[in-house]
Amino acid sequence: MATLLWGYLRVPIMFASGLGAVVSSGLYYYQNELIYPRNIPANARTDVPRPAQLGLDAEELSLPTPDGETLSAFLIKPGNVSKAKNVTFIMFHGNAGNIGHRLPIAKILANEFHCNVLMLEYRGYGLSTGNPDEKGIAKDSQTGLDFIRGRGDLKNTKIVIYGQSLGGAVGIDLAVKNKDHGDIAGVILENTFLSIKKMIPSVIPAAKYLTPLCHQVWPSEEMLPGITNIPILFLSGLQDEIVPPSHMKRLFDICRSEPKIWKEFPYGDHNNTVTEAGYFHYVQEFLDKYIV
Ligand SMILES: *[C@@H]1O[C@H](CO)[C@@H](O)[C@H](O)[C@H]1NC(C)=O
Ligand SMILES: *[C@@H]1O[C@H](CO)[C@@H](O)[C@H](O)[C@H]1NC(C)=O
Ligand SMILES: *[C@@H]1O[C@H](CO)[C@@H](O)[C@H](O)[C@H]1NC(C)=O
């Protein structure tokens, strides 16, 4: 089962072929289908691996959004209560698959690092209702954070935002909008991009004049400098074939928050950076030094 689930992590992220099709054929209205390939892998909308399959102590939740969607979420608790840390992760995944595919990551955070983990499903993904777009997903991430703030057992914990790929953009947006609240203790970003628009010229140079057609922005390059005084860990796979690693480097360079920590994986590609040696060691070091 564990191997199978790690296999699910290696889902194709459709930026390259997807955006190529969008801009070359001008299919403006199909952008969302291509930027948010929520049906990949096949059955990703119905087959969601469940925490119990990995022996995890978890609540399966349905969280209502202010605009009437219902989000599926898992709240994973530390396996050993007596070691529980005062930390809650909120996890945002990449643009394919569902939260169930990322359970092996949550298992490590909960059972080895003894943290709470909220795995939030975006609208239109997995068992959540609705259709994804930038505005909607931003409402979803806020719904997840507000849920943590409203729970007696979580509200006084240190919140760590953890985003992979598209989830990094979601996390940056959320951190900036909530920075004055004072409860976000850390941000972890893996293989994320400067903006969707900046993905286009690097992925398909000939299409650069068509970037104004792109209506999903996710402007992390503009937003990230708005985060201050929150420790940020950057995890960059140098073999990333989807998001050029230069995007992560640039985000690190323009980041004004301190401390900011850079860790790179010489053999990490877009899919497999999370399984590279050292990855969870760096996460643990970040937790021990800057969060707990
Ligand atoms: C990422 O995963 C997808 C789906 O398994 C695969 O097609 C693609 O080749 C992978 N990319 C790399 C560089 O391994
Ligand atoms: C849980 O942690 C406590 C304290 O470190 C330890 O004594 C106990 O053996 C652990 N229980 C399990 C089931 O690992
Ligand atoms: C947990 O962290 C919060 C936020 O930093 C803090 O206010 C609270 O006192 C901590 N609680 C414990 C039990 O350490």
Automatic annotation (TrEMBL):
<dbReference type="GO" id="GO:0016020">
    <property type="term" value="C:membrane"/>
</dbReference>
<dbReference type="GO" id="GO:0008474">
    <property type="term" value="F:palmitoyl-(protein) hydrolase activity"/>
</dbReference>
<keyword id="KW-0472">Membrane</keyword>
<dbReference type="InterPro" id="IPR029058">
    <property type="entry name" value="AB_hydrolase_fold"/>
</dbReference>
<keyword id="KW-0812">Transmembrane</keyword>
<feature type="transmembrane region" description="Helical">
    <location>
        <begin position="12"/>
        <end position="30"/>
    </location>
</feature>
<keyword id="KW-1133">Transmembrane helix</keyword>
<keyword id="KW-0378">Hydrolase</keyword>
<dbReference type="Pfam" id="PF12146">
    <property type="entry name" value="Hydrolase_4"/>
</dbReference>
<dbReference type="InterPro" id="IPR022742">
    <property type="entry name" value="Hydrolase_4"/>
</dbReference>
<feature type="domain" description="Serine aminopeptidase S33">
    <location>
        <begin position="88"/>
        <end position="220"/>
    </location>
</feature>
<protein>
    <submittedName>
        <fullName>Alpha/beta hydrolase BEM46/Esterase/lipase/thioesterase</fullName>
    </submittedName>
</protein>
